[in-house]
Design goal:
The protein contains 15 helices and five strands. It is an alpha/beta fold. It has a five-stranded parallel beta sheet with strand order 2-1-3-4-5, sandwiched between helices. Helix 3 crosses helix 10, helix 5 packs antiparallel against helix 6 and helix 7 packs across helix 8. The radius of gyration is 23 Å and the shape is globular.
């Protein structure tokens, strides 16, 4: 064998001995808006986290061939992320996404309060409390959390993910009473948490994925809607559905996370669905930690309680008449709108 041929053979042998580059390590952190609550299709991981292969972390991982550790969990708060999710991060983590803060601000309880008829609720008070928390407390807690993420994943590209506006000015659900002014204030609250979250992310050098513009025209009661309204089962309510994750969140998050925009086609969707058992097996190892997370969900307005009956009596409402309930709601909602101006 000549020297050139021998050298080529040696080089070929050496290259064949080099192991293939390890798959990118993607850790998805956060709450129900990242886990996939609202898609109605969840992996069997022994938890109440409601993780779905139709959620944007699974779709992005499938499209890019990333190794996904799917830690996001329905009901998670900032302390939950700190105590149960950050252990998944390491120096080898290459990509991190996180949506968090909505549960800390009590979004589910605020929505529950505002869904009641105006004469039976204090929607403005609930929103004021949430906005005060978002403005005065949330930024500091996010800063501490983001510092921990960077410390545990020093080499990762980190994307912080925001929340869409849920409403479009109309309530088409028969058993909720969101007035236009209440919907406007609730959307303003989503904008506020996005603003504070974006600023906290930028301070740590993280990217921010804002879904607001992409969800315009696809809110609750829009056609097509990417956000569920009042749903059965109730846990699905006011969360992104399959289309919301596929066409809303996936392109929004993938662009800063991966450097290119993922568009979900049939091949990507099938690859994501095929990962269900692999994802579930990995998350079962964390089931004990996830059990500490308290699920949080919207509650259907209940007009049979003693408190509501007393409020109805004060407002002169006949609870046996939907017309009476709705007429009084319009009056009280107008009063609340004026009092907030």
């Amino acid at each position: 064998m000549g020297l050139i041929a021998a050298g080529a053979a040696a080089t070929s042998l050496a290259l064949s001995a080099v192991p293939a580059q390890a798959a990118s390590s993607y850790v998805a952190l956060g709450d129900s808006y990242s886990s996939g609550t609202g898609t109605r299709d969840y992996i069997n991981d022994g938890t109440q986290c409601l993780r779905s292969t139709k959620a944007y972390p699974s779709l992005i991982a499938a499209a890019k061939g990333y190794s996904l550790n799917f830690r996001a969990c329905s009901g998670a708060t900032i302390p939950d992320v700190t105590n149960t999710q950050l252990s998944a991060l390491s120096a080898s983590t290459t990509h991190v996404s996180i949506s968090i803060g909505g549960n800390d601000a009590g979004f589910a309880d605020v929505l529950t309060e505002c869904a009641m008829p105006g004469w039976a609720s204090n929607c403005n008070g609930a929103i004021n409390t949430a906005q005060s928390y978002i403005t005065n407390t949330l930024p500091g807690r996010l800063s501490t959390l983001y510092t921990s993420i960077r410390s545990k994943a020093p080499n990762a590209r980190v994307v912080v993910v925001g929340y869409p506006r849920i409403f479009m000015g109309e309530d088409c659900n028969a058993f909720t009473w969101f007035s236009p002014s209440e919907q406007s204030r609730l959307n303003q609250t989503a904008d506020l948490i996005n603003s504070k979250t974006s600023a906290a992310a930028a301070a740590k050098g993280f990217s921010f994925a804002n879904p607001t513009s992409r969800f315009v025209g696809h809110a609750v009661c829009d056609s097509p809607e990417w956000l569920n309204g009042l749903s059965n089962p109730i846990v699905e309510s006011y969360h992104p559905n399959v289309a919301g994750h596929r066409d809303g969140y996936t392109p929004t998050v993938s662009t800063p996370l991966t450097g290119s925009t993922v568009k979900v086609n049939g091949k990507v969707a099938r690859a994501a669905d095929a990962s269900a058992e692999r994802l579930a097996a990995r998350q079962r190892t964390y089931a004990g930690q996830d059990a500490s997370i308290t699920p949080k969900q919207f509650r259907v307005p209940d007009l049979t309680t003693a408190a509501v009956k007393a409020a109805a009596a004060r407002a002169g409402v006949n609870l046996n008449s939907r017309a009476s309930i709705d007429a009084a709601d319009r009056v009280w909602s107008q009063r609340q709108a004026v009092s907030n101006n």
